[in-house]
Amino acid sequence: MTTASDTDDRVHVIGAGLAGSEAAWQVANAGIPVTLHEMRPVRMTDAHRTDGLAELVCSNSFRSDDALNNAVGLLHAEMRKLGSLIMRSADAHQVPAGGALAVDRDAFSDAVTKALEEHPLITIDRTEVAGLPPADWRNVIVATGPLTSAPLADSIRELTDENALAFFDAIAPIVHKDSIDMEIAWFQSRYDKVGPGGTGADYINCPMTREQYDAFIDALLAGEKTDFKEWELNTPYFDGCLPIEVMAERGRETLRHGPMKPVGLTNPRDPLVKPYAIVQLRQDNKLGTLYNIVGFQTKLKYGPQQNVLRMIPGLQNAEFARLGGLHRNTFLNSPKLLDEQLRLKAQPRLRFAGQMTGCEGYVESASVGLIAGLCAAAEAKGQSLTMPPATTALGSLLGHITGGHIETVDAGPRSFQPMNINFGLFPPLASPPTKKPDGSRLRGNEKTVAKKQAMSARALADLDGWIATTLPAVAAAA
Known about the structure:
Blueprint: E1 11-14, H1 18-29, E2 34-37, E3 61-64, H2 71-81, H3 85-92, E4 94-95, E5 100-103, H4 105-118, E6 122-125, E7 140-142, H5 150-160, E8 165-171, E9 174-176, E10 186-187, E11 203-208, H6 210-222, H7 244-249, E12 277-283, E13 290-293, H8 302-309, E14 320-322, E15 325-331, H9 334-337, E16 343-344, E17 347-352, H10 362-380, H11 393-402, H12 445-476
Parallel strand pairs: 1-2, 1-7, 2-6, 7-17
Antiparallel strand pairs: 3-5, 4-5, 8-15, 9-13, 9-14, 10-11, 11-12, 12-13, 16-17
Helix pairs in contact: 1-10, 2-10, 2-12, 3-4
Domain MnmG N-terminal: 11-383
Enzyme class: transferase
Family: Belongs to the MnmG family. TrmFO subfamily.
């Protein structure tokens, strides 16, 4: 790890979560010295528990790894093509998870930390940046994520003249595997799908009858919830990470169509009877000793939370390595405040990355960090990076952040909201597929599948073209 003093071409990255870690890696690999500022453990947050870089505080899943049929899987593939440290570390420390890419969270963080500590062009500074960075930091990436410290958040708000807009992310509970009753539960992936490092039987499934489901919903709705501070009362949730009790409040059947859906699974002990609902658990560490309850983010207080979760058949004796909780998330009105290079229009020396920009999800945050790092490195060399094509997953996500949003007509609260990558962000195909390889017509869902596959193929081809024409020119710059 270098200890060289700051120079004019040094890039400062504030925050060493997924986005900041990826950004620092990309800058350093472009030959530019980096100082990576991380306030932990000098100052901890409400959600983090370690001083590790790229600590995963919510799920341990990077979601689908299917680059052919799923937008997030496509984003994985694009990041791998660009030498992503986050994807390299995730691939090296994956745990079975059906069609998803899930990781041993501690081993993953350790790998990212080690790589950054050992890079000769990266200095890690374990102090808080309390307020706007010093004026002589000319090339800065702010990647402080959902738990930006108050002094820095306040200074950004003052600089942008924007009211802060925040939402809550909820954390799912983690269960000790040996406390799960496998006489009731069984191993199976939905539709027996095999994913990276998996076998097609990677989830633990806990079945519920209708009576058990109704009793669970009643207890969930009645359970005592976390009290909000006054400044949190009007904070909305992100729909992709709703607490289970909030979903239940939207309708008693909501959970059966979300994380408790019973489709694609068959109880081997009673194969002719379809469970009314199913709770799934996914491996959380490489040893296979810990499993997280999939989609079960919650704001129930710890006592009631344990009682409610132990109503799930198979979890009646569950011991918890971690209970669910909440953390607050803050993000910018990026389409208004940022340019296409992710720079703050009011002060272009500041570039933003990760969840602060209005993307949602581990992979999305890291991918924006990757692009921010490439942009900062290009700027340090006197270049301006051309953004990836809008037809790619990277380009479509950046388009949403920096210009793809349409403001509502009314003058109420701004409507820009965090977004996971999805095919709805991509430009439509010029000629959507209508026929199969054998010449017969596509019908029903076949059209949707073929369309996604065509969009993925277009994205990967266009990204290869962008890499070939854009990155060598930046790398060759003095």
